[in-house]
Amino acid sequence: MASRSYGQYCGVTTAVELIGERWAMLIVRDLLVGPRRYTDLKQGLPKIPTNILSTRLKELQEGGVVRRVPLMNCGLVYELTDYGRQLEPVVLALGRWGFQQMGDPQPEDVVTADSLTMALRTAFRAEAATSLPAADYELHVADVALRVQVDGAGLRVTQLAPPAPPVGGRVPDGEPDLVFAAGPGIRRVISGELTPAQAIDEDVLAVVSGDATLLERFAQTFHIDPGVVLAA
Amino acid sequence: MASRSYGQYCGVTTAVELIGERWAMLIVRDLLVGPRRYTDLKQGLPKIPTNILSTRLKELQEGGVVRRVPLMNCGLVYELTDYGRQLEPVVLALGRWGFQQMGDPQPEDVVTADSLTMALRTAFRAEAATSLPAADYELHVADVALRVQVDGAGLRVTQLAPPAPPVGGRVPDGEPDLVFAAGPGIRRVISGELTPAQAIDEDVLAVVSGDATLLERFAQTFHIDPGVVLAA
DNA sequence: CCGGATCCGAATCGATACTG
DNA sequence: CAGTATCGATTCGGATCCGG
After folding, report:
1. B107 — contact with chain A (CB < 8 Å)?
2. Up-side HSE of residue A67: CA atoms within 13 Å toward CB?
3. CB B8 to CB A229 under 8 A?
4. Under 8 Å between Cβ of B26 and A16
5. What is the mean pLDDT of residues A163-182?
6. pLDDT one-digit tens code per residue, A187-214
7. Longest Cα pair distance anywhere in chain B, in angstroms?
8. CA distance B12 to A228
9. Where are the alpha helices (DSSP H) in A111-184?
């Protein structure tokens, strides 16, 4: 076990010994969305070998990052401890940093519900949102569908389907103000490279129903400025 | 090369593909202190195999994180690009997070000048420092010696010796207000587990010269509150 | 000494199959 | 659903070597 030690007495070193292993940070990313079963994690990380997933979950438990919680109605979930949840600013900052380097998707690349949920959180600008009216979006990317509700400085993202809303999830009532679909090119809207109008012209965005002018508000609310990675 | 891909189109994933490999984040940590030669990095990371160091440096260059700069007076240094420097909040947040889980040092663990420099940066509380008078410390831990100058919200850490001040380094003029030596137990002072007075009683801290009452100010300026990881 | 490159055994990872 | 077991493919670690 000491073979993985970096041999330094330092906080950064201790941290990467805990969550620097391959896949570990992505497991944490998905658990930041909410508690997940083993199978949920496997689906959200399609390329993870199952032995690695179980090994990481064991290590993260030993490290006090993750807790294994038996469920009342059979089954069990993994959830972040308080300590694990403190990684949120790290994951968000990493997401903003990586965002700038993202090119176009590889053919093999997928978009998962949890990764898109966290991506919206990384791009969310609370300061901008507070000075804007509340808005209620439904966003479709590939085969994931999210309800995205912005109210003041608050952001609430709910995963719709497929599949049925996961553990603890609750589908919001009411109709969204805007339903729209996007391809991976939505990245260029978030970065400001494309205005919503241009994105529609290039078939990156398509309004399904609702008030199309809300796309502007969406773009102002969710934005990652190249060069600004500062964490929340 | 695609073998290392996590197969997701996501900012976090892109980030860990760039700096998630073993040792990469620690190389960035040291480069955040300043440009370093190959040999400096090797000394600052005593356990890194040289082939891994050169591989990582190559990858970090391809990723736009690190730049290789020939030096006028022979030799060359590696330095962070602007993009690489944007990892500072990530590294600081990781350092604060890992700090809380640090136990006592393993016998093999060393403290390097760069890791201690970054540790001070992670623990620095600008808000607290602004409301305190300026102070000028000299800190010795194991065989590293640092000049730590706090002025308002500003922090300046200079590595003294050994060896001679590195590239671009400049030894501050004047005398420090306080010179003190610490063991690894200084962690418990930073966490608030120990007051400076208790630390002296337990031989964790020893004043070499100067105004011993400044230790209180040091403890107020450098502090990591368990449970508070929020990034700068 | 600086800045690596090379070689090789050990450990880890990835893919698939299988089980309570 | 929640993992183990197995095994070939990679990567890592440790040591040595090499050209300036």
Report:
1. no
2. 12
3. no
4. yes
5. 75
6. 999 999 999 999 999 999 999 999 999 9
7. 58
8. 15
9. 113-123, 126-130
pLDDT in tens for each of the 232 residues of chain B?
Answer: 466 899 999 999 999 999 999 999 999 999 999 999 999 999 999 999 999 999 999 999 999 999 999 998 888 999 999 999 999 999 999 999 999 999 999 999 999 999 999 999 999 999 999 999 999 999 999 999 999 999 999 999 999 976 555 555 567 778 999 999 999 999 999 999 999 999 999 999 999 999 999 999 999 999 999 865 555 4
Number of H helices, E strands in chain B: 11, 7
What is residue A110's DSSP assignment?
Answer: B
Q: Is A86 close to B101, i.e. CB distance below 8 A?
A: no
**pTM for this model (two decimals):** 0.94
Chain B residues close to A102, C-beta within 8 Å: 9, 11, 14
Q: Which nucleotide is nearest to B41 (CA to C1')?
A: C3
A99 and chain B in contact, CB less than 8 A = yes
According to the model, what pLDDT value does residue A166 have?
A: 52
Q: B123 and B222 in contact (C-beta within 8 Å)?
A: yes
Sorted by sequence, the CB contacts under 8 Å of residue A16 that are 6+ apart come out as: A6, B25, B26, B94, B98
Q: Which nucleotides of D are covered by protein (CB under 7 A)?
A: 1-6, 10-16
How far apart are the CA of A22 and the nearest CA of chain B, in angstroms? 7
Q: How far apart are CA A67 and CA A82, in angstroms?
A: 10
- What residues of chain B, 123 to 182, have a C-beta less than 8 Å from chain A? none
Chain B: give the shortest CA distance to residue A73, in Å. 32
Comparing CB atoms, the residue among B25, B47, B99 nearest residue A16 is B25
List, as ranges, residues 70-89 from B with C-beta within 8 Å of A: 82-83, 86-87, 89
Strand order from edge to edge, sheet including B144-151: B154-159, B144-151, B135-141, B178-182, B205-210
Q: Which of B85, B120, B13, B98 is nearest to A229 (CA)?
A: B85
Sign of CA dihedral A216, A222, A226, A227: positive
What pLDDT is recorded for position A56? 98
User: For A7-23, what is each residue's pLDDT tens digit?
Assistant: 999 999 999 999 999 99
Pick from B3, B9, B14, B117 the residue to mutate for testing the A interface (most A CBs within 10 Å): B9
